[in-house]
Amino acid sequence: METTRHFTATTYIVNDGTTALHEHERLGIRLPPGGHVDRDELPHEAALREVREETGLAADLVATESSISGPNT
Fold first, then answer.
1. For the residues of 36-68, what is the DSSP string, one character each?
2. Are strands 13-15 and 18-20 parallel, antiparallel or unpaired?
């Protein structure tokens, strides 16, 4: 049986000590911008795309942290 994996990218937009969140329509809660990494993009590209889609902001990455976690790691 083939395993399907879904990778996600999450961002934190911080300004003067305040973190921006957006209202997740389906879940009905506030979350930091983020979402699935498309097949043809890198995680940092997905992060910037999600910020633009979910907040309308054009962001720059100032720091990155890579981690992989899951039931088999």
1. EPPTTS-HHHHHHHHHHHHH-------------
2. antiparallel
Residues pairing with 24 in the sheet = 29
pLDDT tens-digit map of 58-73:
988 887 666 656 665 5
Domain boundaries in the chain?
A: 8-55
pTM above 0.85, yes or no: no
Q: Which of 39, 44, 40 is CA-nearest to residue 62?
A: 44
> What is the Cα–Cα distance from 42 to 72, expressed in whole angstroms?
22
Is residue 32 within 8 A of residue 21, CB to CB? The reply is: yes
Q: What is the pLDDT of residue 68?
A: 58
